[in-house]
Amino acid sequence: MSKKKILIVGPAFPLRGGLATYDERLCREFKTQGHSCEILSFSLQYPKILFPGKTQFSGDPKPNDIFIHSAINSINPLNWVMVGNKFAKQKYDLVIFRYWMSFMAPAFGTIARLLKKSGAKIVAITDNIVPHEKRFFDTAFTSYFLHACDGFLSMSKEVQAQAQALQPNKKVAYVAHPMYDMFGPAIEKKLAKERLGLDPNFNYLLFFGFIRKYKGLNLLLESFAKLDRQQLKVKLIVAGEFYEASEPYLEQITQLGLSEDVVLKTDFIPNSEVANYFSAADMVVQTYLSATQSGVTQIAYYYNKPMLVTDVGGLAELVPTGKVGYVCSQDSSQIANAISDFYQNQREANFVAGVASEKAKFTWEYLTQELFSI
After folding, report:
1. What angle do CA 85, 42, 141 make, to 5 degrees?
2. What is the pTM of this model?
3. Domains in the chain: how many in total?
4. Cα 152 to Cα 253, 318, 369, distances in angstroms
5. Element (H or E) spanning 205, and its range?
6. 252 and 350 co-located in one domain
7. Tens digit of pLDDT per residue, the chain (374 long)?
8. Which of the 8 DSSP states describes residue 42?
9. 163 is in which domain, residue-wise?
10. Which of 6, 69, 260, 292 is placed for a possible disulfide with 37 were both Cys, Cβ 3.0 to 4.6 Å?
11. Where does a domain end: 174, 209, 243?
12. Which of 129, 147, 174 is the C-terminal boundary of a domain?
């Protein structure tokens, strides 16, 4: 294949979070293959009043191997035109937009139209099309952006179907979320517990990532309360920043008598700490109420961790039940029974072997091949 000039449009350093991590890893993959690739990110991603967390910015070191333009102001239409015209002059072969919420659609749709006039092909990686938390402007904004694209890549079959329904004459490819392999190697479980200040005499489940209603932490706490936690010698680590009010969760922990058995690490987890949390855990638990796909699953694959997920969105597509873990309904008793089965019947070794064989499917090279085919 001839070498391409590629632009990724989406969050990147100094912004933080899974989207930025993904965009930076994808950029590196293109560069490894010999292509020219840069990232067009935001000078203003969210106004402070709309951002649910403590800060939008990363505390990690600046990447020195990729070039990031922090130029898009998400709420300034004059900026969209200026940025679109400026980057259109660069004559990119392929522009990849990272689309995850309708709030970004006016800016992305305007910039995409201007880049398209320069001859660039426009492809969107669609994390979500129908959002988890709906707003009145979703349909109109999303339609504006989708019409500017030449094709789409989704990371769940649910989102693929949504894109096909809205844009039936354009190609929509499905590729499972690639494995996150950039947080450093796994470490010995005992050492990871020591680094996190955990009691080495207990087993640990891990709930990881931003805490929002659709991720079902309340369901997990309800399920966890049904376990014989003393017999199983198990505790739950909740690692991630609250993106909504923390009080209902803290009250639930108290009411269910879980205060001694839930380890709250509810600040943003920097990239440098991710390996500690996954290495310390026996199993990663995602009791989502709704989902499309999840980067957490792909971190678990990298660290060879068994998983329990609920049967929503694209999660079950990635977790063959009985091979790498469990797919459960949103029933707290079923979830509790699966966790009990994991420990009582010593499933960890078999599931780890299953994870190791399954993870070969989730490569960044395959993702880039599909983007080019679109």
Report:
1. 75
2. 0.78
3. 2
4. 42, 20, 13
5. strand 203-208
6. yes
7. 789 999 999 999 999 788 999 999 999 999 999 999 999 999 998 877 655 656 666 667 788 899 999 999 999 999 999 999 999 999 999 999 999 989 999 999 999 999 999 999 999 999 888 765 666 678 899 999 999 999 999 988 888 999 998 999 999 999 988 998 989 999 999 999 999 999 999 999 999 998 989 899 999 999 999 999 999 999 999 999 998 899 999 999 999 999 999 999 988 888 899 999 999 999 999 999 986 667 899 999 999 999 999 998 778 888 999 999 999 999 999 999 999 999 999 999 999 999 999 998 889 999 999 999 99
8. E
9. 5-174
10. 6
11. 174
12. 174
Q: For position 124, which CATH number holds?
A: 3.40.50.11930
Between the two ends of the chain, the Cα-to-Cα distance in Å is 14
Distance CA(190)–CA(201), nearest Å, equals: 10
| Token digits of residue 32 | 């490894």
Q: Which two tokens stand for residue 175?
A: 């590729």
CA 103 – CA 249 distance, rounded (Å):
28
Question: Is residue 226 domain-shared with residue 161, that is, in the same domain?
Answer: no
Instruction: Examine the domain organization and report whether 251 and 157 are in the same domain.
Output: no
